[in-house]
C-alpha cells in the first residue's frame, strides 16, 4: 500500500519543480487507469473496404489520341471506361511478351500497307485486338488477322470459297481491311467512328448516330464490345508504346526482317499440290504453311486467274513462330522446313483439312467447365489447347482456342 502521508511529507519538503513533476506523473498514471479500466474503447464500426474498383486517374496517360484525334479524358465516364480497359482485363498484359514478339514479326508487313493505303498507323492495333496477329476463326465465321466475315471480305476484293480464302493472306487481308476503314471514314470523316464501324459495321454506327442524335463515339450507347473497342485500342497502343504504365519493363523494339520469298505465278488449275510442290522444289507442307489461303489439295481455276504462290528462299531456316501464326494454332514446329516436315506431313495436313479452330473471348464469370460443356469438349482438352495449368482458371478478356475434328 502507498503511504499517502509519506507522499505528502515528501511534497512539502520538495521544491516547486519537483512538485510539478510528481503531480504530472500522478496525472498520467490516473489517466491510463481511467482509460483502460473504466472507459474501454468502443468497437470500430467503420469499414475500410473499398467497394469502388475505379480509382480515376490511376496511371492513365495524361494525353491520349487515336489517329491524331484527342481523347477527352477529362470526362468522368470516358476515364472510367479507359480505366476498365487499362486495368480490369489483365490477360493480354500478362502475355505482353508474346504480343511484342508477334508485333515485331507482323508489323513490318502491316505498317507499309497502312501507309500506302492512307490509313493511320494506329489501326494496326485493330489486328492485334481482333486476332492477336494470328489466322484464327471466330464462332461468328470471321477469319484471319483482321477477322473479316465472308461478305465483307468479298465486298472489298478478297476471294472466299471452298478452295480459296484470301482472308488468310496477311497482306491481301490488310488491303481489304484498309478499304473497309476508308469506306467508313468517307461516311463519318472521323477515325474514331471508323474504328467503331470496323467492329459494328458502317450501317450499325450510322443507325446509332441517327437514333441517338449524336455525332460522337464517346456519347453513343453501344453494345459492350463496340462500346469498349476504341478504349481497348488505346490500351494496346499504350501497352506497346509505354509498357511502364502497366508495370512492364520497357521493351526494345527490333522488327524482324520480312521473309524473302520466291513467287510462282499460276494461271491454270492445280489438281494436286504435291505435284506442284515438286515443280517448285519443296514439299506440299511448305506450300500449305506459307499459303494458308489455299484450303484444299487442289486449286480449280477455270477463269485462269493468276495466283501467286510463295515459298521461302531459304527452306532450311526456322520459321516455326511464323507458322504458328499463319496456321492459327500452336504446334510443335521446332525444326527447319524441309525434311522434318515431310516425315510428319500427315499430321501437318490435318491442321488444315481435318481440324477447325475457333476462338472464344472469355466474358465475366465464365468458367472452363461451363465453356467445355457449351462447346461439347473436355475441360482437360481446353486446358491443353490453351496452356492452362490445373490450378488456373480463365479470366475475362482471355482468348481461348477450341479445336474441332471434322469426322
Notes on the structure:
- The protein has 19 helices and six strands.
- The relative contact order is 0.09.
- Helix 8 (170-188) packs across helix 9 and helix 9 packs across helix 10 (202-211).
- The strands form three sheets. Strands 1-2 form a two-stranded antiparallel ribbon. Strands 3-4 form a two-stranded antiparallel ribbon.
- With 407 residues, it is mainly alpha-helical.
- It is elongated and about 120 Å long.
- The protein is 48% helix and 7% strand.
- The chain folds into three domains: 65-246, Lysozyme (Orthogonal Bundle), CATH 1.10.530.10; 261-321 and 330-348, no CATH class; 356-405, Membrane-bound Lytic Murein Transglycosylase D, Chain A, CATH 3.10.350.10.
Summarize the structure.
With 407 residues, this protein is mainly alpha-helical. It has helices spanning 4-13, 16-38, 76-88, 91-94, 96-117, 124-131, 150-155, 170-188, 191-200, 202-211, 224-227, 229-241, 273-280, 284-290, 320-327, 338-343, 345-352, 368-375, 379-386, and strands at residues 65-66, 69-70, 261-266, 307-312, 355-361, 399-405. Helix content is 48%, strand content 7%.
Reconstruct the topology from this structure.
Layout: H1 4-13, H2 16-38, E1 65-66, E2 69-70, H3 76-88, H4 91-94, H5 96-117, H6 124-131, H7 150-155, H8 170-188, H9 191-200, H10 202-211, H11 224-227, H12 229-241, E3 261-266, H13 273-280, H14 284-290, E4 307-312, H15 320-327, H16 338-343, H17 345-352, E5 355-361, H18 368-375, H19 379-386, E6 399-405
Antiparallel strand pairs: 1-2, 3-4, 5-6
Amino acid at each position: 500500500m502507498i503511504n499517502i502521508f509519506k507522499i505528502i511529507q515528501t511534497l512539502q519538503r520538495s521544491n516547486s519543480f519537483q512538485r510539478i513533476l510528481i503531480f504530472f506523473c500522478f496525472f498520467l498514471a490516473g489517466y491510463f487507469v481511467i482509460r483502460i479500466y473504466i472507459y474501454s474503447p468502443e468497437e470500430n464500426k467503420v469499414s475500410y473496404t473499398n467497394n469502388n474498383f475505379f480509382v480515376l486517374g490511376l496511371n492513365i496517360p495524361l494525353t491520349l489520341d487515336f489517329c491524331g484525334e484527342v481523347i477527352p479524358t477529362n470526362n468522368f465516364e470516358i476515364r472510367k471506361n479507359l480505366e476498365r480497359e487499362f486495368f480490369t482485363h489483365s490477360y493480354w498484359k500478362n502475355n505482353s511478351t508474346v504480343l511484342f514478339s508477334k508485333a515485331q514479326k507482323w508489323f513490318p508487313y502491316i505498317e507499309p500497307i497502312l501507309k500506302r493505303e492512307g490509313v493511320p498507323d494506329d489501326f494496326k492495333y485493330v489486328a492485334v485486338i481482333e486476332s492477336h496477329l494470328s489466322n484464327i476463326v471466330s464462332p461468328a465465321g470471321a477469319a484471319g488477322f483482321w477477322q473479316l466475315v465472308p461478305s465483307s471480305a468479298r465486298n472489298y476484293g478478297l476471294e472466299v470459297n471452298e478452295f480459296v480464302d484470301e482472308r488468310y493472306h496477311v497482306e491481301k487481308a490488310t488491303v481489304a481491311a484498309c478499304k473497309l476503314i476508308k469506306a467508313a471514314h468517307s461516311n463519318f470523316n472521323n477515325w474514331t467512328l471508323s474504328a467503331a464501324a470496323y467492329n459494328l459495321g458502317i450501317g450499325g454506327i450510322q443507325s446509332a448516330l441517327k437514333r441517338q442524335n449524336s455525332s460522337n463515339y464517346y456519347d453513343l450507347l453501344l453494345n459492350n464490345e463496340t462500346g469498349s473497342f476504341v478504349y481497348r485500342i488505346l490500351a494496346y497502343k499504350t501497352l506497346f508504346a509505354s509498357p511502364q504504365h502497366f508495370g512492364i519493363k520497357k521493351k526494345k523494339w527490333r522488327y524482324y526482317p520480312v521473309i524473302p520469298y520466291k513467287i510462282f505465278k499460276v494461271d491454270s488449275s492445280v489438281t494436286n499440290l504435291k505435284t506442284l510442290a515438286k515443280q517448285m522444289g519443296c514439299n506440299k507442307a511448305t506450300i500449305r504453311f506459307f499459303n494458308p489461303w489455299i484450303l484444299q489439295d487442289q486449286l480449280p481455276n477455270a477463269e485462269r486467274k493468276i495466283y501467286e504462290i510463295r515459298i521461302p528462299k531459304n527452306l532450311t531456316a526456322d520459321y516455326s513462330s511464323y507458322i504458328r501464326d499463319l496456321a492459327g494454332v500452336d504446334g510443335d514446329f521446332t525444326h527447319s522446313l524441309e525434311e522434318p516436315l515431310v516425315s510428319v506431313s500427315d499430321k501437318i495436313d490435318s491442321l488444315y483439312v481435318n481440324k477447325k479452330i475457333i476462338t472464344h473471348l472469355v466474358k465475366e464469370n465464365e468458367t472452363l467447365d461451363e465453356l467445355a460443356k457449351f462447346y461439347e469438349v473436355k475441360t482437360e482438352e481446353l486446358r491443353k489447347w490453351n496452356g492452362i495449368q490445373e490450378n488456373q482458371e480463365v479470366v475475362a478478356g482471355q482468348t481461348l482456342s477450341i479445336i474441332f475434328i471434322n469426322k
